[in-house]
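Let us practice reading a record.
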Amino acid sequence: MTTPDGAAAQAPAQRKDATARPARRGPADPVRALMRHHQNLCAHAVDALEIAAGLEAYGVTDRTAARFRHRDVFSLAEELYARVPRAEPDGAPAATAESAFTPSPGRPPAPAGRSRSVRGALQLLPGAVCLATVAALASSDEATPLARKAVGIAGVVLLALAVRLAVRTGPLRLRHHEPRSRAAALWICWTAGYAVYGDWLLGQLLTGGPDLPPAAPRPAVATAVALACALAPAAGCARWFAVRGRRGLAASRGLGELAARTRPLLLTATLLFLGALVALLLGAGAVLGSDGAVAVAAAAALGVLLFLARLLAVHGFPEAAAAGLASATALEALALSLVLIARLPGLPPLDMPVETLTTAAGPAAVPAVACTAAALGLLVHGLRALTGACAHSPSEPAEAHRP
């Protein structure tokens, strides 16, 4: 039989127990459902950073991680990496982050210095081929027109092959080849061709031409040489951004901190490349003849556009890269089309914007405006896309994780 004094003593003890052990809300293991949902990502990840990149691509933020009792996405990714078993190939040991950097027994380490030298030579090859083509054309003044044309065509073909080799190795190499990259290659060919021959063609159209075949195309030789030589600094700036972006990903403890670390890196890499390209344009113009400040500005805008597009494609955003290049192509093609359409009866005012712009600043103003607008659009997009964890994942492109 319980006395009133005993009941009174027991009540505070029960209240104390209830206070010390609050009722748990939600499932006892909230991470388990996330493990099942992202089983494939977690099982094939080489480290926790890759899981964090995949979670961010799926839309998981630090606020979402708080619902799983973690302070940020990186902490949540570390638990997933620790709890989900690694997927093993048939008869092969599980891959770990340490084993990726440990040489296999009996296999000599890769000659890193030699491979870097080869990549550097390949990145310098387009500039060398372009300079050799210009020198060959300059020394064949007394040759027949057919021979000069053959030399020019051979130089263009060799230059295209050199560019292909340069972008398929090193920091400019795409991790995954997709159909969108082929469309982007077409836009690159258009914008590069317009940079070399577009000003001459637009000037001919505005004056009622071109009178073919007597009117021989006049290429912008200095622009072609500078853009070909700019592949080497582009690769250097891309490597600088990738290495420091990876370090920032490893040192950051939240998505906001990672974005704050990466945005200055992207702006610095872009400015470094712009400075190198302007120096190449001014040097080529001093040796081969310059077409003016507006032409230099147009070529610099095109170079920055190509650099940002390749950077986005390399880090897993080929759709944005193709969209930026396509917008510049569309604007340049629209300018040429308006001039031609204005020749039809009753439609003379259509070429007024193009004629006004070229009268004020010359034919090079059209590609300058088109490439600058597209480059600014890619830069704004890059400040958001390239500052996420998924942009620096070592093995998967950012868009591969998206449902």
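A brief commentary: Confidence is low (pLDDT under 50) at residues 13-26, 90-110, 395-403.
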